[in-house]
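Worked example (supplementary).
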Amino acid sequence: MIPAHSRRKDKYTPRSVPEEKLATSAMIASLDAEGREAISAPFGHALVDMAKTREDIVGLSADLSKYTDLHVFAEAHPDRFYQMGMAEALLMSAAAGLAREGFVPFATTYAVFAARRAYDFIAMAIAEENLPVKICCALPGLTTGYGPSHQATEDLAIMRGMPNLTVIDPCDAVEIDQATRVIADTPGPVYMRLLRGKVPNVLGEYGYRFELGKAKVIRDGTDVLFISSGFMTMRALDAAVALAADGVSCAVLHSPTIKPLDAETIVAEAQKGGRLVVTAENHSITGGLGEAVAGALMRAGAHVPFRQIALPDEFLDAGALPTLHDQYGLSVSSITARVKNWLEG
Amino acid sequence: METQTGRTGDNVSLPRRAWSIRRHALRMGEVQGQGYIGQALGVADVLAVSYFHAMTYCAHDPEWEGRDRFYLSIGHYAIALYAALIEAGILPEDEIETYGMDDSRMPMSGMAAYTPGMEITGGSLGHGLGIAVGAALGLKRKKNPAFVYNMLSDGELGEGSTWEAVMSAVQWKLDNLIAVVDFNNQQADGPTREALATAPGTEAAKWAAFGWYAQEVDGNDLDAVVAAFDAARNHPDPCPRVIICNTLMCKGVPFLETRDKTHFIRVEADEWAKALAHLDEEMPQ
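After joint prediction of all chains, the assembly is encoded as:
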């Protein structure tokens, strides 16, 4: 018997067409629509810049260079770009082979395909031998309305389980630019989530600098401590502004390195008493930043009030991204409502 | 740098090298009382040709940049490759006694981090050829004329990832890539030909249809294997090369050759010495 939720087609009730149509294919529309400055293809341009002085950098994609911003690199360095075709196992294996021969391969695809389809190849060909392959993947978490085939809601949980692998969930264009340069200089394998296309610049105004393995306080506050990664840091910052108007003071601790987690900073901040700790991630509630933080706090004996903002442990709906972010609790209004509720509770 | 290859000539014959590889493998099997000896005995001739006719390498510097790369996908064939590496002087013979033991450099499944001369970590099947594609691309980038050999098994032809690599190697015109398939028609649950529709005699045609220079040989006929490796190395077209080697599991030890074939041949405790004694009676020149 197929569970009812899988049979959406049986439960359809026609809705009126809204006046302002939301495009399903606007993959980062909601991030773009906040009136912030946006930077185009930060990953691709950073890689091109690095490659000017680094002959060992090569790029590979499994038929998704245009959708991971690697095409910028491919256009600048056609002889250093390898199109591996729609073949993710090969993508990872061949990247491992190039790394064995002394190159630093950047391999790109969508997060779903790297995490779900190519896991064994990342594990055995790359991570087990600690090879410097940089796996950079677009459409992390809920950043597309295409439904579960494209929504990598559990990629961090999967990748956190892999020994030797550094896992990064950058926030914005500034951080993607910086992190791309840092991981090119860092030994060993890396999995990095990408925002692509026009990516907002959020952290620039805070004078932020990405450091591998470091969580940083972006904004201080006395009532709530958000611990966040990825674009949820921009949502947490916006929520902090909104909550301040209601007299709630929120700090935002941005933790882009999911593994190795900066447990020291996280525990120290959480133990500055009197604050509700709220993790915020663009990922399933299972196995991502929130549970990593919870584990770090428990191991340190830091018993603090703790809440998680994350996606539910479900295959998510298709639809327009802003609608889905509201529906699944990643929007600013959803965050502020829950935080107020928790503080009152 | 002193490099080593059968082509530069030494006085030891290929039959003798193959015999020694079988003998080293049997001694390792005796140490553990188990091992994938059927595969090792079957593929010994192909390994002898690889290490004492075809490949260039430097025994005292297994990571020498100019070496031909030998990628063993099939981790459980480690016992066979250790035997070849010992015969080649890359591993010392006295380490045979440590085979499969705690802290040994020769674990039961081949891993790059453990063993000099073991280039990749095998064992999860269907990985080797894809890694070989990347390495072959890397060598071309460096204008390094070395070959990449990937030894894979007939069972690995069932892995989709193998065929991803097959297509890519043609796309990239990897004439520095030589795949060597040990076709012994035996995988874990039974005959390979009863698993994923593969009829005798169709293998080379399958690879050729993808654009490879494909040969199929009796992998226990040393002269035929030598000729196939020479043809693979010297083929003029800009395409990858494959040699399908039909081998007989347990080749060289008649009482094991005729035993019911399984993936993991059972050998009784007293049979290791018997097998070694049989080999010793038939030592080639």
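Two points are worth noting when inspecting this output. Chain B has a mean pLDDT of 94. Chain B touches chain A through 33 residues (CB under 8 Å).
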